């Protein structure tokens, strides 16, 4: 299975502009035979830790603007994972949608949101793509090993991690390498492949992101890593079939 992690410039409050970038990137991915394309956390509207901003930006899954965007993703081969702020009634979630053949095929909501006003998700769905199964953890979810454990126990061989490490300059520098290390710990703990997609750039508050997109094998080896401070695309061919070993039930647990 061919996967791709897109490291892209963060764009704020411009869904139409993001939609154009997504359409371009996904058309390219389809031409390249990409089976699964991963985009960053809250990529669609731009990330924020402020409750009022997240609420203003949030879209429901039946919003016409979102459905128009999704309809542009009616690709022959590529399935996409796209991060967004999602509205469900009065609740706001930090979510990622799975888009397949021009429709939303499911959604995962971040179990451990750091964003003010966001409701924690409680479900850990797994999707099938060819001979593989994949699930989603969003950014800080990986600090809590039970989140990836749930996916592995449900049969996932690939864990997709949309992230948004746009932080104050000192914190951005502090968390760049630990962000990669967290992917490696997750891979070794679950015996799954792990793929992460991050943003680059800065916001109006002077925060910025190096870009910590990477692909890690089940032994914790980083097989692909994006260039820092640069838009980049990581493409990697996983084995044709998901390894039978999957999650090691006897592996020591950090948390459950």
Give a structural overview:
With 256 residues, the protein is α/β, with parallel strands linked by helices. It has a single domain (2-237), classed as Carbon-nitrogen hydrolase (Nitrilase/N-carbamoyl-D-aminoacid amidohydrolase, 4-Layer Sandwich). 25% of the residues lie in helices and 30% in strands. The longest helix is centred in the C-terminal third of the chain and has 22 residues, at 169-190. Residues 249-256 have low confidence and may be disordered.
Quick take:
It holds the Pfam family CN_hydrolase. With about 260 residues, this protein is α/β, with parallel strands linked by helices. It has one domain: Carbon-nitrogen hydrolase (Nitrilase/N-carbamoyl-D-aminoacid amidohydrolase).
Largest sheet: 8 strands, mixed
Helix content: 10-25%
Taking all residues together, what is the mean pLDDT? 92
Q: Can you name the CATH architecture?
A: 4-Layer Sandwich
The CATH C-level name is: Alpha Beta
The tally of structural domains comes to 1
Structural class: alpha/beta
For CATH, the homologous superfamily is named as Carbon-nitrogen hydrolase
Coarse shape: globular
User: Which topology does CATH recognise?
Assistant: Nitrilase/N-carbamoyl-D-aminoacid amidohydrolase
What sequence of helices (H) and strands (E) makes up the elements? EHEHHEEEEEHEHEEEEEE
| Spatial extent as radius of gyration | 17 Å
Strand content: 25-35%
Which helices and strands, and how do they pair?
Elements: E1 2-9, H1 15-31, E2 36-38, H2 51-57, H3 64-71, E3 79-88, E4 91-100, E5 103-109, E6 126-129, E7 132-136, H4 145-153, E8 158-162, H5 169-190, E9 193-197, E10 199-202, E11 208-209, E12 214-216, E13 222-225, E14 232-237
Parallel strand pairs: 1-2, 1-10, 2-3, 7-8, 8-9
Antiparallel strand pairs: 1-14, 3-4, 4-5, 6-7, 9-12, 10-11, 12-13
């Amino acid at each position: 299975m061919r996967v791709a992690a897109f490291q892209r410039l963060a764009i704020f409050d411009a869904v139409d502009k993001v939609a154009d970038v997504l359409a371009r990137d996904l058309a390219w991915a389809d031409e390249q035979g990409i089976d699964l394309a991963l985009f960053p956390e809250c990529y669609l509207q731009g990330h924020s830790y402020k409750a009022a901003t997240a609420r203003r930006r949030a879209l429901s899954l039946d919003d016409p603007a979102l459905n128009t965007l999704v309809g542009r993703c009616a690709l022959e081969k590529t399935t996409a994972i796209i991060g967004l702020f999602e509205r469900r009634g009065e609740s706001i979630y930090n979510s990622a949608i799975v888009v397949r053949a021009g429709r939303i095929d499911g959604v995962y909501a971040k179990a451990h949101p750091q964003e003010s006003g966001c409701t924690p998700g409680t479900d850990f769905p797994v999707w099938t793509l060819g001979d593989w199964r994949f699930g989603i953890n969003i950014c800080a979810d990986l600090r809590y090993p039970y989140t990836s454990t749930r996916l592995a126990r449900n049969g996932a061989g690939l864990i997709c991690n949309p992230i948004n490490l746009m932080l104050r300059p000192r914190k951005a520098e502090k968390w760049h390498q630990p962000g990669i290390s967290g992917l490696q710990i997750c891979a070794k703990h679950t015996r799954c492949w792990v793929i992460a997609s991050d943003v680059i750039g800065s916001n109006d508050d002077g925060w910025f992101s190096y870009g910590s997109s990477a692909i890690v094998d089940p032994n914790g080896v980083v097989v692909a890593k994006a260039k820092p401070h640069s838009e980049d695309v990581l493409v990697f061919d996983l084995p044709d079939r998901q390894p039978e070993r999957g999650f090691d039930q006897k592996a020591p647990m950090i948390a459950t």
